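User: Reviewer 2 asked us to show a designed sequence for the structure in our supplementary figure. I'm pasting the structure tokens here. Could you produce the per-position amino acids so we can include them in the response letter?
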């Protein structure tokens, strides 16, 4: 699949996915059926060190894992994320790409949005309100952070402050910009925000778009596009909007906010709450989608784009040294899938069979897969396993987790699904 150039993206803004893929299916007139039983298909190829699922050797293998989806809430407009505030309220917050955040309290979707900044947002294609992260201190400070594309087409990282953290409605006047990043094209915005185990805010930034990274932004460490950023917005000093965390990678020429380089479009990433490892789904260009994993607290990686697309030299046929680059733990080819949606390692308690499994999906082809590097009891596997678990699941734009560690899948067509699992 050839990623559309900026002019083409402009023509399909309303039909385009937020997940960083230029070619997307048109929104169907009615929801398609969603699979509620696992399937035995496996990816037709594997990443280095990640072979196709072999014959099962123990009940804990992915071959014995059965996953189902249960529709929990619907009626959203272009939902792209779901998360919790970590405040003990049990609430879920759903990000709608046009510029709203909705609240689910006591299992019910509230009619009035928690926040509406649609008047500040350019919505369409890969632009809009793309992410939210609640401060670890939200319960007392009311602080949270947004990633959105403003009316000039540029990325804004903003801070919101809720006067009453227990409230379910917040005025847009409580939102102030912390960081602005100039964007050259309408696509590849990244959009994911996460607070890491270290308490700092991580920001996924795409390469700024068009196709093939024409400005070599992914490999330019002095700019913020095509990077994973890390800042400390909670302890800014004086007039500064954020501080640079101690221990930031100290490579020559790196911008102070940069934690890792060589990203094409890290649409969704997450931290394993057990190990602290960082899992990144980086959307590919023409041929490969990839999953990257970094050890807890370790930055400074060069993930390769646009010298490498996954584990393959880019452009195809070119030669490149592998020295100095990090490579994915897993990848899959087009057309098996064409737009990876990164997920989470399951650490909940309801479904022991799922513990330690990283779930991810493909937005274009509508399947869900699992990747496991250890058994549910925590013992490392000799070789990682990957397997497709569900097909025909719509347009999976994101995953999310509640306060108990249970997982949800977001369907861009308007629903949030609960994920359940058992061993067959």
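Assistant: Here is a per-position design you can include in the supplement:
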């Amino acid at each position: 699949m050839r990623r559309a150039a900026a002019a083409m993206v402009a023509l399909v803004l309303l039909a385009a996915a937020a997940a960083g893929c230029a070619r997307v299916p048109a929104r169907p007139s009615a929801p398609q059926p969603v699979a509620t039983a696992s399937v035995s298909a496996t990816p037709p190829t594997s990443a280095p060190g990640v072979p196709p699922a072999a014959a099962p050797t123990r009940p804990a293998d992915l071959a014995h894992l059965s996953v189902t989806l249960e529709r929990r809430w619907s009626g959203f407009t272009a939902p792209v994320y779901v998360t919790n505030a970590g405040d003990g309220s049990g609430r879920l917050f759903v990000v709608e790409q046009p510029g709203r955040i909705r609240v689910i309290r006591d299992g019910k979707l509230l009619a009035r949005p928690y926040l509406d900044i649609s008047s500040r947002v350019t919505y369409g294609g890969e632009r809009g309100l793309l992410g939210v992260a609640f401060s670890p201190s939200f319960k007392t400070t009311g602080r949270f952070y947004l990633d959105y594309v403003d009316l000039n087409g540029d990325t804004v990282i903003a801070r919101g402050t809720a006067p009453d953290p227990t409230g379910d409605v917040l005025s847009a006047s409580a939102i102030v910009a912390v960081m602005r990043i100039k964007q050259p094209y309408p696509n590849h915005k990244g959009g994911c925000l996460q607070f890491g185990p270290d308490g700092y805010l991580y920001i996924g930034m795409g390469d700024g778009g068009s196709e093939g990274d024409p400005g070599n932004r992914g490999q330019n460490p002095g700019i913020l596009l095509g990077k994973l950023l890390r800042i400390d917005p909670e302890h800014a000093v004086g007039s500064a909007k954020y501080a640079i965390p101690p221990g930031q990678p100290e490579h020559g020429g790196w911008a102070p906010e940069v934690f890792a380089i060589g990203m094409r479009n890290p649409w969704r990433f997450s931290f394993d709450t057990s190990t602290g490892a960082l899992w990144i789904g980086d959307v590919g260009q023409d041929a490969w989608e990839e999953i990257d994993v970094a050890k807890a607290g370790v930055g400074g990686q060069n993930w390769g784009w646009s010298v490498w697309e996954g584990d393959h030299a880019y452009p195809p046929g070119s030669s490149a040294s592998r020295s100095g680059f990090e490579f994915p733990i897993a990848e899959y080819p087009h057309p098996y899938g064409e737009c990876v949606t990164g997920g989470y390692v399951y650490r909940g308690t309801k479904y022991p069979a799922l513990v330690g499994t990283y779930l991810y999906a493909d937005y274009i082809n509508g399947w869900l897969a699992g990747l496991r590097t250890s058994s549910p009891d925590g013992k490392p596997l000799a070789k990682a396993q990957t397997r497709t678990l569900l097909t025909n699941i719509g347009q999976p734009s994101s995953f999310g987790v509640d306060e108990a560690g249970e997982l949800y899948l977001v369907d861009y067509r308007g629903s949030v699904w609960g994920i359940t699992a058992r061993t067959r």
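For the response letter, you might also mention the following. The chain has one domain: 6-21+74-354+404-413. Residues 1-17, 23-59 have pLDDT under 50 and may be disordered.
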